[in-house]
Structure formats: C-alpha cells, structure tokens
What does this fold into?
Amino acid sequence: QVQLVESGGGLVQAGGSLRLSCVVSVSISRIDRMAWYRQAPGKELEQVAAIHTDGRTDYADSVKGRFTISTDNTGDIMSLQMNSLKPEDTGVYYCYAYVTHFSPYWGQGTQVTVSP
It folds into this structure.
C-alpha cells in the first residue's frame, strides 16, 4: 500500500511561483512512475508532468519550460516546481504513483489558484 500526501498549493498572482510536494509512504525507488495531474474547473483530468525510475521526465506542452518535476535525495518526496504561473494553471493538483501489477495510487489533491 502506497500513501501519498500533497502540500504546497495556494493562491498566487500570475507570473508567480509555487512548489508542490508529495510525501510518499514508501521509497520512490519501488515505484515505476510518478506524476502530477490536475483537474481544472470544467475540464478533464490532465497529466501535467511525470518522472520514471530511470529519471526520464515528461511534461504537458502547456507547462514545458515552466514546470519541473523532481524527487529528492531522501527518496520519498516528489516535487513540482511551478514558475511563471498562468490563470489557466488553476486547478486541483494530484500526486500519482504507479507500481506494476497494482492499481494506481492517488493523493487527496491540493488546490492551486492563479489570479490574473
């Protein structure tokens, strides 16, 4: 069983920055893929960024060059550094973890609101 707890959301003006963190209950080395998803008002759930066990990262086109996904040296925290935020980045951000042969794990979500 993997538990995920997000933090770091909040209200920020356009052009500002936020850093989201996801504390994982097991070593990230045991997880095949981790990602951040967001649910914007009236829109479908969207993968924002993902990181694989080999270190590869993927980003949605809308956030490339502005967001950075990473894991820390302790091996149990995944972060999303969000810079140059735009109002369209507003939404609930969810931490996601996938382990082969298991159902995906989700955090409870953290609200990010970017004002114009």
